[in-house]
Write a structure and sequence with these properties.
- It contains three helices and four strands.
- The protein has 95 residues and is α+β, with helices and mostly antiparallel strands.
- It is elongated, with a radius of gyration of 16 Å.
- The two termini are 13 Å apart.
Length: 95
């Protein structure tokens, strides 16, 4: 499945993740998946939300630097080698 992913730039300081989640919650937007990459000064929260267009607008309105990109979501069994098999199929198709 193709989904929209938000990438949100955050200063690496206490409370910034809380601010993002509170803005989304206030608007009734569910954050169903997230990943954070960070260093000493900043981080990038990448997440999949229930309403990416609305989330983008409300985060921008609350002065967050945010971008939206398409990502591929997959589901595979929780067994050794399952992800490798799926990724092999994708890579042989040039994805």
């Amino acid at each position: 499945m193709v989904a929209k992913q938000l990438s949100i730039f955050l200063e690496n300081k206490s409370g910034r993740l809380t601010e993002v989640t509170e803005v989304l919650a206030k608007e009734g937007i569910n954050l169903s998946a997230l990943c954070i990459a960070e260093n000493a000064d900043f981080g990038i929260l990448r997440g999949v939300v229930s309403d990416p267009d609305k989330a983008y607008k409300v985060l921008k309105a609350n002065h967050f630097a945010v971008n939206v990109t398409d990502v591929i979501g997959i589901s595979c069994p929780n067994i050794p080698g399952a992800l490798a098999k799926v990724l092999h199929s994708l890579s042989s198709e040039g994805m």
